[in-house]
Amino acid sequence: MLGSAWAFSIAVLVILIWLVTGPMFHFSDTWQLIINTATTVVTFLMVFLIQNTQNRDAKAMHLKLDELIRAVKGARNQLVDLENLSDEDLKKLEEQFQRLRKKAERDGISSCEEEPAEIAESTR
């Protein structure tokens, strides 16, 4: 809701009202402090809102990908829940996929189908 055009329009309206009231308050320090404080508070709160939204989106994406991995015949179920691996394990897996990609580039696409079992064994 806060990322909508209506929210943006309201924010622009608030700033315009603040600007229009400037001459009435003689562009005082208090007048400036009001907008500075308001924007700081809104920014602070938005950080948490954005992080929450990103966490929810990432979780939904992981669940969708997990479902696809489980549903596709021949997919390696060992790759489900990779987000729970340690950084070191993820790095090892990334290196294995890079080697697989390089081999596929050298040998052609069909070589990708030969090595998944090798990668799956090393993730256990």
Write a brief structural summary.
This protein has helices spanning 5-21, 29-71, 87-107, 116-122. The chain is an all-alpha fold.
Structure keywords:
4 helices, mainly alpha, 124 residues, single chain, 71% helix
Radius of gyration: 26 Å
Helix percentage: over 70%
The profile of the biggest β sheet is: none
Task: List SSEs in N-to-C order.
Answer: HHHH
Mean pLDDT equals 85
Count the DSSP helices: 4
Low-confidence stretches: none
Total strands? 0
**Could you say which overall geometry the principal axes of the C-alpha atoms support?**
elongated
Distance from N terminus to C terminus (CA atoms, Å) equals 43 Å
Strand content: under 5%
Structural class, please? mainly alpha
